[in-house]
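Troubleshooting entry. Yesterday's outputs looked truncated, so today I'm pasting the complete records for two proteins to confirm everything comes through intact. If either block looks cut off, that's the bug. Protein one:
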Amino acid sequence: MNSRLLCLATVLAATSTLAACGAFHGDTKPAEINPTDMPKGPGLLSGESGNLLDAFNKKGKGGESGGTIGVNIYLWRAALESVAFMPITQADSNGGVIVTDWYSSPAAPNERVRANVLILGKSLSSNAVKVTLFKQTRSGSSWANAEVSPATARALEDTILTKARALKVQTMADK
């Protein structure tokens, strides 16, 4: 019995000594993480499609596309700025999709509009952006769909293209 007790005491003493060794090294710091040392492979910030954070790097390999997101970055930024007054329900830079919620102007509270903006490619061209507008008018307590002039959608597309070109010129001047 005494040998068992002695053996148990020895094991407990050794275990507590080993456990205490790690506790007294308070000056040891964990390795610092460098955000540029991201592992390769699938993921949100790194992977086969590139590093998401590099999309906003001015020194990136953007060329005409203006970044490494799935669509032209100048068109993307211009589209976001152009519909910023409306509540945005979806914005997918890789797919080039911006969907807004209904917006009513204070000047016309009985009308509301919403927009779908599609950036269709990496080139900065007029056929790389498509805007679809929806309009409703209030009839009593319910909303009814109303016709939207195709010229209104084209005007928003032209606004986006003009802003995108200005952003590209500004970015090139900053380099």
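Protein two, checking that the full record survives here as well:
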Amino acid sequence: MTVPDARGTLADLAECLHLTAAQRRDVANVGPFRAFISGSPNPVMNLAVPVTDTDDWTGAVADLTDYFIAADRVPRLEFFAELHPGLAAALEACGYRRDMRAPVMTLDVARDWPQPAAGLDLHFVRSDAPAEIAAYVMMQAEAYGEPGEDWAPMLASGIRDGDMRVLAAWHEERPIAGATLMLSSAAAELAGVGTVPSARRRGLALAVCEALLADHARRGGRLVWLSAGPGTGTLYNRMGFRQVGTQLNYRLAMPDTT
């Protein structure tokens, strides 16, 4: 893929990111940024993205910081490095720290997918089954090692409204691995791929992802993208994903008040 092609693909994916972030959040334009504020103070539930470039990133970041502080939220940003090459340095100069640097990868899912292994219990999480929602959130918390209660209402409404598809592998009526497709008009984002520690190294994440992507293809979906976390590149390469850019996540280093 040539550099112009990659930039065009990243621009399309950035628009998908904006559409997904706007779901069930308050949206505001703050200078060259768009801020998405949720009802939860959990930092991962609130973010801003750049929508244009500017000659004064430092001033724009300062205004964005003030906006988040006024909303009683931790200032946090997600963006593709290749589209905004001057932003990272400005954020670091303003006291932000980098939380994540991850490959952005894409895949056309219109292909032949393998059938799930016999005996593997895969089924979609239902929005009208509160016990399933709660169990899935607990599984993700265990898989990622961090609390996830704030995610439950957004998960339930996303499944109900049809902009999320959540598939899990189940054992003894509880999920032990799962993944989510965040649906938008141009491309779907594969996110939240996780397996509880006791069930790892059994190919469950791969099986769940392949089944979820196969379902998306049957429904007419084509392009899927993701940002690959540490140690996950091999998993996504096996499915055919290829890197097109780099995602950076930053948040303001807040003072310790404890």
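Both blocks look complete. Sanity check on protein two: The two ends are 49 Å apart (CA to CA).
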